[in-house]
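Quick one - first record:
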Amino acid sequence: MDLSQKSQANIEYMIEAIKNKLRMASGAAMQSSAFSVEQYEDLHDIYEMVMNKPNLSISEVEAVVSELGRLRSS
């Protein structure tokens, strides 16, 4: 997948990958449609950070979820 292109499909891919990596029980609450292409750079940064870490601490997971929530509401 070419994530250098800003698209809703890439946003959907990244959100799904983040949810899978974080093993989010409430993943259904985070819909990719809640994020716009204007937030692409921020989402891509979060995606890269999450995917490049072999494990995430509880505080890191909470920080990621919090940041995604902030982006979703903006």
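second record:
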Amino acid sequence: MKKNIGILLLFILLGWLAGAWIAKALEPVQALSFLTASTPIKWSPQANLDIISYDITIQMKLSLLSLIGIIVSVWLYRRL
């Protein structure tokens, strides 16, 4: 069976989202703060070309639990 890159990206996105939700739910637990602490990754391209200008900001938050979610989702994808 040929695997589709779109399905892999969907699995990765869903794993990341599931890990982020679990991290958000576990934030009040101090003992698990090493799993729930997130690091923002930010990218802000911008340009002003006289006739058109743009300013885009993309920010992603990555925690250990969301990384675990991504790893599990790739593992599940490979098991398909």
